[in-house]
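Input (structure):
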């Protein structure tokens, strides 16, 4: 989606290939990457290739960069992807470690959810996170989500396996 959404402290906008150096700051950080599904990036050019591969016109993918209004810095990304088979929007996000604990992720995700809800039907949202990732559990709780079941996931490259929890919020 080629739109911009504003919250109290953030500007949420599509990531573009020119963002690769800023995005590399969190994509290459082992602390940020610990529970991510993607492997740790070691070259900024690989982040640029990822950003170039994205379809900004996909109406079922709201994956936005998080820009601090105060400084104009791109500090993370996240959003919702619609799964028509399950009729659910799946949540995902990551933010630079120096921005953790400030309530920015719940603010960003709620802003995107409110925006999506103005043009699309949102019956439910879901998210999966590693059991040890208590920060993500807290984000999902702040979004009104609750525990559904235990599950698991692997990094795309198979380098790690995680016991996980599935959280969900129904709106109907």
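Output (sequence):
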């Amino acid at each position: 989606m080629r739109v911009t959404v504003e919250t109290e402290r953030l500007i949420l906008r599509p990531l573009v290939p020119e963002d690769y150096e800023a995005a590399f700051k969190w994509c290459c950080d082992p602390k940020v990457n610990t529970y991510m599904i993607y492997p740790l990036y070691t070259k900024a050019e690989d982040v640029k290739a990822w950003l170039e591969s994205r379809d900004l016109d996909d109406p079922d993918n709201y994956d936005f960069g998080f820009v601090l209004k105060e400084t104009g810095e791109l500090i993370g990304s996240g959003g919702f992807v619609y799964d028509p088979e399950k009729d659910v929007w799946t949540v995902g996000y990551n933010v630079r470690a120096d921005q953790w604990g400030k309530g920015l992720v719940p603010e960003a995700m709620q802003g995107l959810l409110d925006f999506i809800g103005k043009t699309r039907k949102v019956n439910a949202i879901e998210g999966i996170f590693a059991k040890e990732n208590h920060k993500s559990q807290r984000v999902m709780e702040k979004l009104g989500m609750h525990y559904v079941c235990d599950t698991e996931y692997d990094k795309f490259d198979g380098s790690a396996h995680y016991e996980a929890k599935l959280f969900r919020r129904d709106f109907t």
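Notes: Residues 5-170 form a domain with the Aminopeptidase fold (CATH 3.40.630.30). The longest helix spans residues 104-119.
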